[in-house]
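Model it.
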Amino acid sequence: MEQLKKEGKIRRWGVFNFDTDDMEELWSVPGGKNCAVNQVLYHVGSRGIEYDLLPWMREHSVPLMAYSPLAQAGNLRRGLYGSPTLKWIANSHKATVSEVLLGFVVRDGSTIAIPRSGRREHVLENAGGARIVLTEYDLRLIEKEFPGPTQKTYLDMV
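Modeled.
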């Protein structure tokens, strides 16, 4: 990747589904510290990266690109969109559950969310997620229903 940068073919490069061990290994090779982003699955129901990967990335100034921030695949989506807690939070912000889910993912100001959307109304709704500022109370409610990790877990992948 660094050779492609030298040749002017790319400006920056990143990685996909690198866990903490992978990132540490990347950091040990020449040019590895030039990694511009790590793209991993991250949403309210898939928070395993919060245990060690996300802190590592923050410490090393590597932005997170969250794919599937709305849990677009699998059975978990139904559980999130049917959650009374998430519905209550959405109502309190005059928002949709999708906007709350996106607001959760980008709450730190340095995470890039890349939700999939094929319809105009969903694109507009996704953009609305940037306006959601979750309160400490909202975050406590989310933590209670969708707790963060208490130990190292393997990366979730869709």
